[in-house]
Write a structure and sequence with these properties.
The chain is an alpha+beta fold and 498 residues long. It is built from 16 helices and 23 strands. It is globular. Strands 17-18-16-15-21-22-23 form a 7-stranded mixed sheet.
Length: 498
């Protein structure tokens, strides 16, 4: 009887359960969207209880597709998650004290500015690899403790727990195991890159009690088993993989060697470059982050370029403007015109992430004339993703000294042929899509499978990777330079709006 590994992919807009076989092929999937809550401009929240309910439902639905009664076919479960999204809940009640504050949320801008008054935006970068920014979990925890009545007192008394979504899901799955992995911990602004532990000086600075933080583990080990008293299927199955979504995609793309990179096109866009066993500081607006740690092996670090809004911009066209019925319609609309009509769309809806880190920026459409129609707008939306990726790649090459020869890509937008060709053109390197484009869930499955011996080593995982399609650049240099110069000009127009 075949054996499988399950992965829970808890993302920004939906939760999925995906089940993989030994070759890394997807055999079953179930998915459910959750509500996006916008209480004020710049605020973005999720309901953690809704997400936990959805997690149970998609697990049940995915397992039902492979077997009627034999959950023993699933050997282990891996978890991957939207990073930085912050949940604080009662240790005994299991009830969140507030909605999850999503990574895109900008309400902690004042906290970050206050912290930056002494030492600047890079005050904590030497220890954490991160700038002071609304993106990360630490300031979000501060906000909850300061703004939810009684929260700080309860936290000091050891009655509250914090976690990113991986910790929340694992805590519920296992009936109370409170852990995270190094990749998620490295996104909190609270973990020291050298010690791989919470940093007491930073905790004191932010006023966060250490007792509410999860234990930091490797990305691949048995954390616990699915609790017998909980409702999801797969009771007794080990939960043995945990990776933040972008690190999981790097792992699923089998970028195990220094110098290998991937770009994931999801709600945002995230490029990671494997830098090996030493953390490389960035001077170009990138993040130094933990890529993964397998069991008791040495931790592997990465440079990351984080872009806040890419796929979310397509959703905005769909949901806010009603220009398309479903996200996949954007390609046909963009193909209805030959070019962008001279416009650029800078999607700084919640500020700009890498390489600028400007929370004062806001979205703008530049170059509008009466000639421009909805096709041009759709094209500018897709091109914005490619331009932002080019900015990150430029910064990455500058920091690392590594000249990228090809870019492995994954995520939902990689099936947009127009975008992928334009991406290759504007980067001037080939863009390669793997056979399994949903590498985030695959990476979590790989981490879980390694921990239980389902896969023996990284070489076995490398053998699973296969190329599906490659796009080669075919734009002349003058046109590429002109388009990119226009983008750089447009970006500067969004600064200092707030």
């Amino acid at each position: 009887m075949p054996q499988y590994i399950a992965a829970i992919d808890q993302g920004t807009t939906s939760t999925r359960c995906m089940i993989f076989d030994h070759s890394g092929s997807l055999v079953a999937v179930a998915q459910k969207e959750h509500k996006q809550i916008y209480p004020q401009p710049g605020w973005v929240e999720h309901d953690p209880l809704e997400i936990w309910q959805n997690t149970q439902e998609v697990m049940r639905a995915a397992v039902a597709k492979i077997v009627t009664h034999h959950s023993s076919l699933v050997t282990a479960i891996g978890v991957t998650n939207q990073r930085e999204t912050t949940v604080v809940w009662g240790k005994t009640t299991g009830q969140p004290v507030y909605n999850a504050i999503v990574w895109q949320d900008t309400r902690t801008d004042a906290i970050c500015n206050e912290l930056a008054q002494d030492g600047g935006q890079d005050r904590l970068r030497a220890k954490t690899g991160l700038p002071l920014a609304t993106y990360f979990s630490g300031p979000k925890i501060m906000w909850i403790l300061d703004n939810v009545p009684g929260a700080r007192e309860k936290a000091k008394a050891g009655e509250l727990l914090f976690g990113n979504m991986d910790t929340w899901i694992i805590w519920n799955l296992t009936g109370g195991v409170h852990v995270t992995d190094v990749s998620n911990a490295s996104r909190t602004l609270l973990m020291n890159l050298q010690t791989l532990d919470w940093d007491d000086e930073i905790l004191a600075l932010l006023g966060i009690p250490r007792a509410m933080l999860p234990k930091i583990c490797s990305s691949s080990e048995i954390y616990g088993v699915v609790g017998m008293g909980s409702r999801p299927p797969l009771q007794g199955v080990p939960v043995s993989g945990d990776l933040g979504d972008q690190q999981a995609a790097l792992f699923g793309q089998t970028c195990f060697s220094p110098g290998e990179a991937k770009n994931t096109y999801g709600t945002g866009c995230f490029m990671l470059l494997n830098m090996g066993e030493l953390p490389v500081p960035s001077n170009s607006g990138l993040l130094t982050t933990l890529a993964y740690k397998i069991g008791d092996q040495k931790a592997i670090y990465a440079l990351e370029g984080s872009i806040a809004i890419t796929g979310a911009l397509v959703q905005w066209l769909r949901d806010n403007l009603g220009l398309i019925e479903k996200s996949s319609d954007v390609e046909a609309l963009a193909r209805s015109v030959d070019d962008n009509g001279g416009i650029y769309f800078v999607p700084a809806f919640s500020g700009l992430f890498a390489p600028y880190w400007r929370s004062d920026a806001r979205g703008a459409i530049l170059g509008m004339t009466r000639y421009v129609n909805k096709g041009h707008l759709a094209r500018a939306v897709l091109e914005a993703t490619a331009y932002q990726t080019r900015e990150v790649l430029d910064a990455m090459e500058k920091d690392s000294g590594v000249k990228l020869t090809a870019l492995k890509v994954d995520g939902g937008m990689v099936f947009n042929e127009l975008l992928m060709q334009f991406q290759a053109d504007i980067l001037d390197v080939p863009v390669i899509r793997p056979l399994v484009a949903e590498t985030t869930a695959l990476g979590a499955a790989y981490a879980a499978g390694l921990a239980v011996g389902f896969w023996k080593n990284l070489d076995e995982l490398r053998a699973n990777w296969g190329r599906d399609k490659e796009w080669k650049p075919n734009m002349d240099v003058a046109k590429r330079d002109k388009l990119y110069a226009g983008w750089k000009k447009a970006v500067t127009r969004t600064f200092e709006w707030i």
